[in-house]
Specification:
The chain is α/β, with parallel strands linked by helices and 337 residues long. It folds into 2 domains: 2-153, Rossmann fold (3-Layer(aba) Sandwich), CATH 3.40.50; 175-336, 2-Layer Sandwich (Alpha-Beta Plaits). The chain is 47% helix and 19% strand. The protein is built from 10 helices and 12 strands. It has helices at residues 29-41, 52-62, 78-85, 105-114, 126-165, 175-192, 206-213, 215-231, 257-274, 303-319; strands spanning 2-3, 21-25, 45-49, 66-70, 96-100, 118-121, 196-203, 239-244, 247-253, 288-295, 325-329, 334-336. The strands form 2 sheets. A 6-stranded mixed sheet has the order 1-3-2-4-5-6, sandwiched between helices. Strands 8-9-7-10-11-12 form a 6-stranded mixed sheet, with helices on both faces. Helix 10 (303-319) links the parallel strand 10 (288-295) and strand 11. The radius of gyration is 34 Å and the shape is elongated. Residues 5-15 and 331-337 have low confidence and may be disordered.
Length: 337
């Protein structure tokens, strides 16, 4: 038998908060009545259950602040019920005050082993019960507050970590995140002896765009280009980052030069589809120049060599009239238009 909350006990406190809720689990109707009357007198809300199984169901429904649990009951005794409740995550688990006529050391040890926070023997000393109820509820509320604060701190730390790795304007990875990921992927590809490709690109005639349309329009253009580039990759190890100004950089792990060229062609198509008007450009719309390089990293080489090679390829693409790409195989130091 599970008896729901007594409506007369649900009045709010002067601060507008409901009183703490206590679940009584006892097979003795007279004991439940005595406990309920005492707890309501102490301004607690009360729910009741007549055995361990209905006590578990009541816990799931009302989520009390404290459980008063009789040790000896039919169907499921207090020890088994307490053991089952101990499976609830600690931050959500209310304290259990075991009420028992058993006071031998073995029973007491068994109660604590099952997960009880405290115990009190029958016949009940009401002043002692009241003191222990107050203490356990205070501890539970303090634990809940600490859990909330800890989760808030975790969320704040995650947000700070995110903000530290994201470019504020374009909302893609920033230079700091790029440097970190390049180091990580360099080491990983070194271990796997797999190719690592890098794409360095920038917006053609971007200074003229700013001069023509204003810096606010330039910011919007950077955001649109960044989003378009970011949509062109979808693997966990890949990264698009803002390298600085109107320059962007792309890390492609376990990708040969041919695969990087394929990605660049996709990026060119996506940028073209944006159709951002740029009347000061010979192409009459926003375009990008790309420098592409690829290498199998070794312990003797440094990630900076990849950046240098991609930068050299990018400048060659600009020399060839922009809106194009050039590649450089880092190992052989040769350019391929």
């Amino acid at each position: 038998m599970y008896q729901s909350l007594e409506q007369s006990a649900i009045s709010t406190t002067p601060s507008g908060e409901q009183p703490s809720l206590i679940l009584i689990v006892d097979d003795d109707p007279l004991m439940r009545l005595q406990l309920r009357l005492y707890l309501q007198k102490e301004k607690y809300r009360v729910a009741e259950a007549s055995d361990g199984l209905t006590g578990l169901a009541a816990y799931e429904e009302v989520h009390p602040d404290l459980i008063l649990l009789d040790a000896v009951m039919p169907t499921m005794d207090g020890f088994a019920c307490c053991q089952k409740l101990s499976e609830v995550p600690e931050s959500d688990r209310p304290p259990i005050l075991m009420i028992t006529s058993l006071e031998d050391k073995e029973s007491v040890d068994r109660a604590f082993a099952a997960g009880a926070a405290d115990y009190i023997t029958k016949p009940i000393h009401w002043a002692v019960l009241g003191q222990r109820v107050r203490r356990l509820i205070q501890q539970f509320h303090l634990q809940q507050q600490q859990t909330i604060l800890y989760k808030q701190l975790e969320a704040a730390n995650r947000q700070l970590k995110y903000l530290a790795s994201i470019d504020g304007l374009t909302q893609i990875a920033n230079r700091r995140q790029f440097d970190q990921q390049l180091e990580e992927e360099w080491r990983r590809m070194t271990r796997q002896q797999a190719p690592l490709s890098l794409i360095l690109c920038d917006i053609d005639f971007f200074k003229h765009y700013n001069d023509t349309y204003g810096h606010q329009a330039g910011d919007v253009c950077l955001q649109q280009v960044a989003a378009a580039l970011n949509r062109s990759i979808n693997r966990a190890g890949d990264l698009v980052a803002r390298y600085g100004g109107e320059e962007f950089v792309v890390i492609l792990s376990d990708t040969e030069l041919e695969g990087a060229v394929h990605i660049v062609k996709q990026m060119q198509a996506v940028i073209q589809a944006l159709a951002i008007v740029h009347k000061s450009s010979p192409h009459h719309c926003i375009t990008l120049s790309f420098g592409i390089t690829s290498v199998i990293p070794t312990l003797e080489s440094l990630p900076e060599t990849l950046i240098t090679a991609a930068d050299a390829a990018l400048y060659q693409a600009k020399d060839q009239g922009r809106n194009t790409f050039c590649t450089k195989i880092n190992t052989f130091n040769e350019f391929y238009p």
